[in-house]
């Protein structure tokens, strides 16, 4: 059973992250040290240097031949289940929509695995739990972020088709009563011509991922992990030292940058109370519930079940907000989920950790 000493150990591991976040927030909102332009420069430093090295350093020390495929399968089942439910909701519910299905998937399935998850799970259950978080982080970065980008590109293509159709109709409605036969042929030909193929969509997705340093940090880290564990190579100390000197700043600078981001917003809750509550329910209830179903389906028990659920209850992925802003899809909802979710995650995760201690 989990005691107060265990909870204190978790709090000790988490509070430094919130100190870094508070320093970032105060440096802009209270002390006026950084301008918005300088905040953007710090954010670019984090995105292009600190976090990629942080991700790479964690990934290269995993053993791909000893990965817990049952936990990865549980995670996959939970996300596939989420996709199916949201697809059914978008198709058959009068209130469902494709755009909100994408946003709901981001809110319920994509978490801040490394920056918050790695130190948290290490404090809760030990190094083996941290290794599981790293494994799930790699899968999320390579598989599920690709899926999210593909869905966003598909939606963007749909908007493009509608725009072209509207233009071909003289700038009026997309389709008028859906026109003469000749005009209908022109409409359909314009729509088909503007609809990108699956290959072109995937090319766009992979190009965006290739421009994301954290993506190729994960890929390179996994590649080196396979090579080093297969042939028992050790990374040269000069290279490892170069990686470590940058990666050690990763978690602190990431949380500091989050504080800067929070301070630059006009208000923490940017999307209204109803949508905030909706996002928090998806992040801290629906996501863990789906993971619990997936974990039970593959037979996870004990600490493996607990770790899987806590990973699913981590704060919102920052990358999901970045993509939402880039594609113009409910960015204010994801912004609120990242900010508010990060603030409330410490007490919620500690409570979850304590409650799961009673589960056999």
UniProtKB/TrEMBL annotation:
Gene Ontology biological-process annotations: auxin polar transport; auxin-activated signaling pathway
Positions of transmembrane segments: 7-28, 71-90, 102-121, 133-152, 205-227, 239-263, 275-298, 304-324, 336-359
Location of this chain's protein in the cell: Membrane
Membrane topology, from the record: Multi-pass membrane protein
GO cellular component, one term: plasma membrane
Pfam family, one: Mem_trans
Keyword RNA-binding attached: no
Keywords: Auxin signaling pathway, Membrane, Transmembrane, Transmembrane helix, Transport
Chief subcellular location: membrane
Gene Ontology MF annotations: auxin efflux transmembrane transporter activity
Keyword Ubl conjugation included in the entry's annotation: no
Family assignment from sequence similarity: Belongs to the auxin efflux carrier (TC 2.A.69.1) family.
Function: May act as a component of the auxin efflux carrier.
Name of the protein in its database record: Auxin efflux carrier component
Provenance organism: Phoenix dactylifera
UniProt gene name: LOC103716143
